[in-house]
Amino acid sequence: MEDKTVTIMEAVIDYIENHLDGKLELEAVAEAVHYSKYHLHRLFTDTVGMTIHDYVQRRQLTEAAKLLIFSDRPIIEIAFICGYESQQAFTSAFKAMYKSPPAEYRDSRSFYPLQLRFVLHRKTAAGDFKKEHISMAEDSDIPAWMNLMRLVIDGYPEMNEANEADYLEKLKESISGKQALVLKDGDILIGAMAFTYVPASIEFLGVHPQYRKCGIQKLFLDVLLEQYLPGQEISTTTYRKLDKADTGHRDLLLQLGFAERELLTEFGYPTQRLVLPPRQEKSSHE
Known about the structure:
Elements: H1 3-18, H2 26-32, H3 37-48, H4 52-70, H5 75-81, H6 87-98, H7 102-108, E1 134-136, H8 142-151, H9 161-176, E2 180-185, E3 188-196, E4 201-207, H10 216-228, E5 234-239, H11 249-255, E6 259-266, E7 269-276
Antiparallel strand pairs: 1-2, 2-3, 3-4, 5-7, 6-7
């Protein structure tokens, strides 16, 4: 990706972050960075993996959730602060994403972000990645892994600060148990996967947004199936169908061959288990 594109996207993100307290429309953002709104829409979606509208909404609702938990401001005031014109509109949007109305969420006293600010890389490779580029994670990868996890937090509902501490401990165990894989572009960690042998499952699969169109998820899956969990049914969990908080993670798993199984509730959040059937070994005649 060209530096110019990333520079423009950084300017867009800066503008959004500085105007989360107002109504942010594509036209206003495009005008601020002196770009055609149609061209900007395509560039942003290609770079970040979601539209400007979705990114703005998720960032504003994350800030609203933070205010609900860490301040005593009235809900209607928080609605106005975060760009909503009425408490009703705010409540409807908040409940669709957080699965509970603002007052109930406030009572939970547990904050978790829908979306954190995107951090982009200035220099990225074209991305001719192969399976042999994937390696076992080491302890030195932990800081970069945690940063990647925060960047792709849109795929992991209910990842709050308390759960993040637990996640870090599990990550250390996965690395020491040789159950964590990474893919790097130079010094940049662009993809990571944590898995378990018994039961055979994927605990985490994250790819930096700037590389999501490089087929990296399938590379990780191929390595997992060929080298670590051959001939096994592999499970993972993700959003339920039609969950508005999902930015495409469920569809990606289905495209990779996963099939729907039972509905679950994890950390109080409605999810669904998906399974990948064992791969059939090719016969010698094929």
